[in-house]
């Protein structure tokens, strides 16, 4: 591992050599091998069809009957109308492949284990943090409609509403970045990060420099990012490089050379929690375009900082997700002790 620290440009730590990330590197790396293997699976399906070309007249007749049956089935099944039209087109264009793809996605094999684990944790943690009745009644008097919405949300997990919480709004990504660095410097106990995108550059370099230093000081630093970063942003070995810095790191749903419906489910969260008193949330990933150092999607904006009362819900849910949902156990134990639900993305706030 080579750590480069460019102090002249204040770019922070770089764990990758120049050219070790990007599309060209992905083509000639583990990702390239995955693409080749996936292409091989598709080629096998096409070749199997060609091997039976001498039976083509019978196959065509059978496909016509099969297509009619599938169309009637789709027309009478309980699907969203938009999805139903999409599947009808796919099945009529490619009857066998379309039908196999439809039933494969409906069975949801790749995501079933994660969904079972998810439901198990929600059931165990639903009453972990009790709702203050005083706060709820105050909201009910002020806005009965909002109170009813709170009760509805609480049925899906542990989502207590708080009173007096102050939220700081950062209109620009660079505003959030400056405050983020300041808060990270003051961390004493733990720093939890969960992001959809992490890419080497100025933003992640400066953040990583602080994280590595804090890890050496004994601060519990945990990083989790989505597996789609392996397509072009970070190599598969990147989590090992972070672990060498003393940072606990995991990848959510890393890419593999097998077709799976699990790829439809990504971790789009963008959360950073510091010592249980400050949390950052919003639409800013850890990449330079989000602080407008690079112009890719126009001028990026919108992020919030949530202090004190709401933070426990964020950092505990991240810890649970880090420990229990990224790597699925083969068996769900009944005696698992969890503190809070992992899906409280919406947190009602009383100003």
Folded structure, characterized:
The structure is a single chain. The chain is of the alpha/beta class and 351 residues long. The protein folds into 2 domains: 25-108, no CATH class; 113-350, Endonuclease Chain A (Endonuclease, Chain A). It has helices at residues 23-27, 30-51, 56-76, 81-93, 95-107, 109-125, 133-142, 144-154, 173-185, 202-216, 238-244, 311-325, and strands spanning 4-5, 13-14, 162-163, 168-172, 190-195, 220-226, 248-252, 270-274, 278-282, 301-307, 349-350. Strand 5, helix 10 (202-216) and strand 6 form a beta-alpha-beta unit. Mean pLDDT is 75; it is low at 324-351.
Order of helices and strands: EEHHHHHHHHEEHEHEHEEEEHE
Helix content: 40-55%
Quickly give the CATH architecture of the largest domain: 2-Layer Sandwich
Mean pLDDT: 75
CATH topology title of the largest domain: Endonuclease, Chain A
What's the CATH C level of the largest domain? Alpha Beta
Based on secondary structure, the structural category is: alpha/beta
Count of spatially separate domains: 2
- Rg of Cα set: 24 Å
CATH superfamily (homologous) name of the largest domain: Endonuclease Chain A
Principal-axes shape call: globular
Kindly, what is the distance between the CA atoms of the first and last residues, rounded to a whole number of angstroms?
48 Å
User: Total number of β-strand segments?
Assistant: 11
Strand order of the largest sheet: 4-10-9-8-5-6-7
Low-pLDDT parts are: 324-351
Question: What profile does the largest beta sheet have?
Answer: 7 strands, mixed
Number of helices: 12
Amount of beta strand: 5-15%
């Amino acid at each position: 591992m080579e750590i480069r620290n460019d102090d002249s440009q204040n770019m922070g730590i770089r764990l990758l050599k120049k050219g070790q990330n990007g599309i060209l590197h992905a083509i000639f790396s583990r990702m390239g091998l995955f693409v080749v293997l996936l292409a091989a699976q598709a080629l096998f399906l096409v070749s199997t069809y060609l091997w039976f070309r001498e039976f083509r007249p019978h196959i065509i007749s059978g496909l016509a009957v099969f297509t009619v049956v599938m169309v009637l089935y789709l027309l009478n099944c309980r699907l969203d109308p938009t999805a139903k039209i999409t599947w009808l087109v796919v099945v009529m264009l490619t009857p066998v492949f379309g039908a196999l793809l439809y039933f494969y996605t409906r069975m949801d094999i790749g995501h079933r284990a994660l969904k079972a684990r998810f439901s198990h944790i929600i059931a165990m943690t639903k009453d972990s943090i009790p709702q203050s009745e005083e706060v709820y009644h105050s909201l009910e008097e002020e806005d009965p409609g909002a109170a009813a919405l709170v009760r509805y949300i609480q049925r899906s997990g542990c989502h207590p509403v708080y009173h007096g919480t102050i939220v700081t709004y950062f209109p620009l990504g660079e505003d959030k970045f400056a405050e983020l660095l300041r808060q990270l410097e003051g961390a004493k106990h733990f720093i939890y990060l969960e992001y959809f995108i992490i890419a080497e550059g100025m933003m992640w370099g400066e953040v990583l420099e602080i994280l590595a230093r804090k890890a050496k000081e004994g601060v519990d630093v945990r990083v989790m990012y989505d597996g789609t970063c392996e397509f072009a942003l970070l190599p598969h070995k990147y989590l090992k490089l972070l672990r060498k810095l003393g940072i606990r790191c995991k990848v959510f749903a890393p890419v593999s050379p097998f077709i799976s419906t699990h790829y439809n489910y990504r971790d789009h969260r963008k959360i950073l929690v510091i010592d249980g008193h400050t949390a950052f949330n919003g639409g800013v990933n850890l990449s330079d375009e989000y602080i407008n150092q690079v112009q890719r999607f126009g001028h990026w904006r919108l992020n919030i900082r949530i202090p004190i009362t709401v933070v426990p819900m964020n950092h505990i849910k991240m810890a649970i997700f880090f420990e229990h949902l990224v790597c699925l156990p083969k068996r769900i134990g009944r005696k698992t002790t969890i503190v809070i639900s992992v899906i409280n993305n919406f947190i009602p706030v009383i100003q």
